[in-house]
């Protein structure tokens, strides 16, 4: 445990993709400037802190994953506090502030944070500071930045109160005197009565002491030449403002090149989520015609030599590398083209000012430089403001320097959102736009997040195809634009498409005597089981599936499984099954025409399809989208869900489909039950609670 007890606070983070950790690190770093010390731990390190005896204020930063679950690293913690035998005053001694991260595009926004917050309250813990809920959909920083700004005053006040309570007058005076040394704190104390009710949107009222350290040093550049702002060009008022830029994050990583040779670490060592399996791709099929807008591929993996197991409805993760051309380009810009295959040793910089600095867990201590850039860092990530701030120091051109300062400043917040965040600008795009920026390798390791494995829904049944696992995906394509001179493909889907190209066009590869491709394509995967998105345990219960586009994927697994069960158990009773499928064109992207076989053999009772881009000569235009089709079967939906206690599954695109389907279901429930919309929404919430209305959606 660290820290002088008069200034210490406990800082816990629960992270899935590294964002909550990065924010906790930011808090820890800023704490020093406020005379405070963060005792920071991952929430899973339960041997390093003890909330049962914790007297200092606790700050929790927690993200949300899946369909509203806390991150994997918080599972044990959540289970522990959800113990129903705990008394209501279990945490009565605890004062805490919580920052939840989420994405409002998903149904259960910030549910990880809300769950922990609610439970701590039930157990008697007190807020010393209002809960912040940050939305990745509009930009986490909109809430995170002002929340952190306001945290210091609240923390100091909480520490004072805590010590007063403990009757430690000597400590109180020490804290008071530390507060009085900084002029801005006097202002803070005058505001102290507002602490309990901090309103996050009131950003202007926050003091900007941490952000303003360079205010005088940065002078505005000459008025803009063009009238349009862009990534590299600003216009008034931003171009003429004095800027509040974030504090320069201390560097903390040192990279040493080594003369030695050896082996790179195994990919499995990069994964903390479970066992990885390297499996052959045995089949690749393009499901869409060449003229379809998106290209969908189905891949079949051979898992027969592994202990990998799954149920239809589960997802799994694919470990994918960055694009080799982009890696080469980065090496070139860093001036390290010749050194890509050299081994490097990554260490914490001696004497770094960063509190609690440690080598990021996703970076091996020893590997080649190319290995780090290829397998460990999400080089396509949208650079955070702290990264931009660090890049300012590596930029020689005065105009470029100023623009980078603007983009990370408070005054340039909307430019950051517009030209970086919403434009999906990545690090390489930035280096092209700001050619005098020459960062050092350690900055990339310090600021780029972990390259995440990508999740895919299983599209097969282990009963129907023993030893096989199939999945379906669209190749993600990002067209060229002003800030991205070349078009790009998604990291994982672009890589997979290239990898399996020989299987898609077998004539181009050498076939052995059995007609099989002689070179085996292998990928590394690991399981990501889904707790709820499974077939009903009772086969007599009816269910409806809604899966347009690649959202149909898990339902192919459901239907294969069901077909086998019907063949094996002729004496069982099976409920009716419905599938609503939609795509753009009947003859270009109708992914699984063999659905008709399921219909023919009775596995599928009702198949309803729609085509959003096909023109129709019918007098009454047919419905375009699955949500429109569902409305046509309102009585059946209500019967299956309410009378027969059936299940309703939705899979696929969150933004454009899943919300539309939920709206349609609410309308149907309201109409069929003659209830108002609010009542219908409550029924839908109840169905979700009972795990009979289930979603597996992604954006
Ligand atoms: P990435 O390189 O990660 O690019 C996609 C990201 O780029 C987007 O998330 C977005 O942030 C960003 N972006 C968006 N537009 C642009 C733009 N114009 N320019 C630049 N960047 C942009 N997908 C399937 O196809 N099939 C499935 O069965 C499936 N199942 C899933 C199950 C789960 C539980 C989850 C969480 C996701 C699932 N996905 C599925 C999504 C999948 O994991 C990947 O996100 C998807 O395949 C894209 O990966 P990628 O690496 O190719 O794209």
Account of the 3D structure:
With 699 residues, the chain is of the alpha/beta class. Among the domains are: 7-162, 3-Layer(aba) Sandwich (Rossmann fold); 543-697, Rossmann fold. The protein is built from 21 helices and 22 strands. The strands form five sheets. Strands 1, 2, 3, 4, 5 and 6 form a six-stranded parallel sheet that branches. A six-stranded antiparallel sheet has the order 13-10-17-8-9-14. Strands 20-19-18-21-22 form a five-stranded parallel sheet, sandwiched between helices. Strand 4 (95-102), helix 3 and strand 5 (126-127) form a beta-alpha-beta unit. Helix 4 runs antiparallel to helix 5, helix 9 (385-392) packs antiparallel against helix 10 (398-408) and helix 18 packs parallel to helix 20 (654-672). It starts with 7 loop residues before the first strand and ends with a strand. Residues 169-225 and 509-513 have low confidence and may be disordered. It binds flavin-adenine dinucleotide. Residues 315, 380, 424, 454-457, 471-474, 476, 478, 490-494, 550, 553, 698 line the site of flavin-adenine dinucleotide.
Main attributes?
699 residues, six-stranded antiparallel beta sheet, 21 helices, 32% helix, globular, binds flavin-adenine dinucleotide, NADP, Flavoprotein-like_sf
Give the low-pLDDT segments: 169-225, 509-513
Nearest-integer average pLDDT? 85
Portion of residues in beta strands equals: 15-25%
How large is the count of helical segments? 21
Write the layout of secondary structure elements.
Layout: E1 8-14, H1 19-31, E2 37-42, E3 58-62, H2 75-81, E4 95-102, H3 111-122, E5 126-127, E6 132-135, H4 141-165, H5 169-181, H6 183-190, E7 253-258, E8 277-286, E9 296-302, E10 315-319, H7 324-333, E11 343-348, E12 366-368, H8 369-376, H9 385-392, H10 398-408, H11 413-421, H12 427-433, H13 441-447, E13 454-457, E14 468-474, E15 477-478, E16 488-489, H14 491-499, H15 501-504, E17 522-528, E18 543-546, H16 553-568, E19 577-583, H17 595-600, E20 606-611, H18 626-632, H19 634-643, E21 647-653, H20 654-672, H21 677-689, E22 693-698
Flavin-adenine dinucleotide is lined by residues 315, 380, 424, 454-457, 471-474, 476, 478, 490-494, 550, 553, 698.
């Amino acid at each position: 445990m660290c820290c002088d007890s008069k200034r210490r606070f406990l800082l816990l983070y629960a992270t899935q993709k590294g964002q909550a950790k990065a924010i906790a690190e930011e808090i820890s770093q800023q704490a020093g400037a406020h005379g405070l010390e963060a005792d920071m731990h991952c929430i899973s390190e339960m041997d390093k802190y003890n909330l049962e005896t914790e007297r200092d204020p606790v700050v929790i930063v927690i993200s949300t994953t899946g369909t509203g679950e806390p991150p994997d690293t918080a599972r044990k913690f959540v289970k522990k506090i959800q113990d129903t035998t705990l008394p209501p005053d279990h945490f009565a001694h605890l004062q805490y502030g919580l920052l939840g991260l989420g994405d409002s595009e998903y149904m259960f926004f910030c549910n990880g944070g809300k769950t922990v917050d609610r439970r701590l309250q039930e157990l008697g813990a007190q807020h010393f500071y209002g809960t912040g809920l940050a939305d990745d959909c509009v930009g986490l920083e909109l809430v995170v930045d002002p929340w952190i700004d306001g945290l210091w005053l609240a923390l100091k006040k909480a520490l004072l109160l805590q010590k007063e309570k403990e009757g430690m007058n000597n400590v109180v005076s020490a804290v008071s005197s530390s507060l009085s040394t900084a002029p801005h704190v006097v202002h803070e104390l005058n505001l102290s009565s507002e602490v309990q009710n901090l309103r996050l949107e009131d950003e202007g009222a926050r003091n900007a002491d941490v952000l303003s350290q360079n205010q005088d040093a940065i002078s505005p550049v000459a008025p803009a030449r063009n009238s349009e702002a862009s990534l590299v060009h600003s216009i008034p008022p931003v171009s003429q403002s004095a800027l509040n830029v974030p504090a320069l994050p201390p560097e903390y990583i040192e990279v040493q090149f080594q003369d030695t040779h050896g082996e790179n670490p195994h990919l499995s060592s990069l994964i903390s989520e479970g066992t990885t399996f390297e499996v052959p791709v045995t089949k690749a099929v393009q499901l869409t015609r060449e003229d379809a807008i998106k290209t969908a591929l189905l891949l079949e993996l051979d898992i027969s030599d592994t202990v990998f197991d799954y149920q239809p409805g589960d997802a799994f993760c694919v470990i994918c590398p960055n694009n080799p051309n982009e890696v080469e380009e980065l090496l070139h810009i860093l001036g390290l083209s010749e050194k890509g295959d050299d081994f490097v040793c990554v260490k914490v910089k001696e004497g770094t000012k960063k509190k609690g600095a440690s080598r990021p867990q996703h970076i091996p201590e020893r590997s080649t430089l190319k290995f780090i850039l290829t397998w460990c860092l999400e080089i396509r990530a949208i650079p955070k403001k702290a990264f931009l701030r660090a890049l300012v120091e590596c930029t020689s051109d005065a105009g470029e320097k100023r623009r980078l300062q603007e983009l990370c400043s408070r005054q340039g917040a909307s430019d950051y959102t517009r030209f970086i965040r919403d434009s999906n600008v990545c690090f390489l795009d930035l280096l092209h736009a700001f050619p005098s920026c020459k960062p050092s390798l350690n900055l990339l390791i310090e600021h780029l997040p972990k390259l995440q494995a990508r999740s895919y829904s299983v599209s097969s049944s282990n009963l129907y195809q023993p030893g096989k696992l199939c999945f379906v995906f669209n190749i993600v394509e990002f067209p060229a634009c002003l800030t991205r001179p070349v078009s790009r493909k998604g990291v994982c889907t672009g890589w997979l498409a290239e990898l399996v190209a020989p299987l898609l066009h077998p004539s181009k590869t050498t076939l052995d005597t059995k007609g099989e491709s002689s070179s085996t394509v292998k990928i590394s995967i690991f399981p990501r089981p889904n707790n709820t998105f499974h077939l009903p345990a009772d086969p007599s219960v009816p269910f409806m599936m809604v899966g347009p586009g690649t959202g149909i994927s898990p339902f192919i697994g459901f239907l294969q499984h069901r077909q086998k069960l019907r063949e094996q158990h002729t004496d069982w009773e099976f409920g009716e099954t419905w599938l609503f499928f939609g795509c753009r064109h009947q003859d270009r992207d109708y992914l699984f025409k063999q659905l008709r076989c399921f219909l023919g053999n009775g596995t599928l009772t009702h198949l309803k399809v729609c085509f959003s881009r096909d023109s129709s000569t019918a007098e009454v235009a047919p419905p375009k989208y699955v949500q429109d089709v569902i409305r046509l079967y309102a009585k059946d939906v209500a019967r299956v869900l309410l009378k027969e206690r059936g299940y309703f599954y939705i899979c696929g695109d969150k933004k454009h489909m899943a919300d539309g389907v939920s709206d349609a279901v609410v309308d149907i429930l309201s109409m069929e039950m003659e209830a108002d919309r609010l009542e219908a929404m409550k029924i839908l919430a109840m169905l979700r609670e009972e795990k009979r209305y289930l979603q597996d959606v992604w954006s």
